[in-house]
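writing this on my phone so excuse typos. first protein, seq and then structure
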Amino acid sequence: ATWQTLHASLSPIIGQRGVAALIRRSLYLTRDAHPWLSPVCDTAAGQDLLAPLSSALLLQTEPEAIAAHGALLGNFRDLLATLIGESLTERLLRPALDHTSSGPTAEDITP
């Protein structure tokens, strides 16, 4: 959900291809620490990365998925900050990250 929200938030600003390029580069930078991300990195250019990323995360243990997601998000944030600056990056990412972090926790089973 985080990646879909980020994609929707940033696409009007840097374009769908720009967001996809940042996600692809973030995956590349993260795969050394989390080798199971390599098949997602190898997804053909132009193909949606979010579905394979979601599937790969779901196949991992919860701690591993959380660690990889955090590393991937950190790399994405750093890359975006390199391109547009820290202040603008924080302003653009804050609503997307606040929105996704305000949902129920993994342990919360109530609707």
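second protein below, same order as before
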Amino acid sequence: MNPLTPVLVGVSQILERGFDPDAVREPIDLMLTAAKAAAVDSQSSDIISAIDSVRVVRGIWRYKQPAGYLAEALGLDKPELVGTPFGGNSVQALVSQTALDILAGEIEVALVVGAEVGNTQAKLAKLGQTMTYRETEGPYDKMLGEEVPMSCEAEKARGVAQPIQMYPMFENAIRHARGESIADHRDRIAKLWSGFSAVAAQNPTAWIQKEVSPEEIKTASASNRMVSFPYPKLMNSNSAVDMGAALLMTSVEKARALGIPESQWVYPWSGANAHDTYAVSNRANLHSSPAIRHAGNKALLLAGVTVAQLDRVDVYSCFPSAVQVAVAELGLDDTKPLTITGGLTFGGGPLNNYVMHSIAKMVELSRLHPSEIGLITANGGYLTKHAFGVYSATAPAQDFQFADVQDAVDAEPTRTVLQDYDGPATVESYTVMYGPEGPKAGHLVCLTPAGERVWANVEDPAEWVAMTESETCGRAVMVDDSGAARFV
């Protein structure tokens, strides 16, 4: 085996359910706790001092650069400091890059870490307080990519700029493409999400450790309010969690030098990245993902495995639509578990850092079943940025393999979007947004007779209700130059 073969040797997951307004724990506190716990997990007393790269996944926290603070708190001697842009794909993309850096001999031991405290922030808000953050100074030594806007002006002009608006639009497009009724579709995705809760119920590091029935998931109630059609709260990512995680990566050679037993080693076999068009408006349709298809299948090809040979998968699960698109593009068997954590609703959704928890869980399960192979999928933006990784506790037959397949994705068909349009169109997809009193807005994404995409809003409250009761995809509308739509 190549002595520089990258290997994961320490992992941790931190869940803090308690809340004390007089002793608030910041995200950086959870990161530090997670880093120390990952070191303990590695079974090496020397690994902390050997860290020469600290890599932090970007969160919604307001730290300028927390990696330097962590390095100082851990007593490290001027390690490399690395950050990421926003995006749920960042953890897997960072692990792949770290594997490449170790394989190239550029670093020896990397700490990959992240945390969010959405539960604490929500409880502070109820008390009329806000989170305070330590000052962290200095720039990162390097960044894993750049921040790229993922909303275009046509979308923003109609007030569509949030995941809770975009993902239900993908969901309704999926339903229409499948030819399902609203009732049958609701039943199917509620059953899918109940399966995720069943996994969470058996996962000691899940935030919600109970199985929830399809009936409870699909039924709106005081505790399961509608957010956006067709999603009630229990079909949304749960960001009200205080969760942190850390990974320690090194080479086989360094792992042996640090005295880390091989029982703790898990190998990243392959990785692949790609992104769909940054603006949803430019995609050929709203129910598929060329980037998932090209990058996901490339990661499997590089690892030399097929979907049928996978023993476990964790599909990124911010909303049911994200899971269904991945299942369709990769040919996954949705009669088998699609998560190892419970997903972002039940396992917990610490925003960009969820995949660190899924990789940590993959490491734990791989150690228990060394011959088995697992796949991690990661998604950032509006089903936009994608990263994939294949893992096993069995050593790979070749060096870690990686590919960025953006050229193949860029060759796929796209659409033109119009910001201003006056004329007939056909509804491609839609959603209805809810407030405390019920429906409050109706958003449409439509296609003109020439196949261009336009966004429009429905202003009639009676139509909002009707849109949730009968299929609106495929209906004819007239759109005026103000962006208002009228059904015809």
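The chain has 16 helices and 18 strands. thats all i got for now
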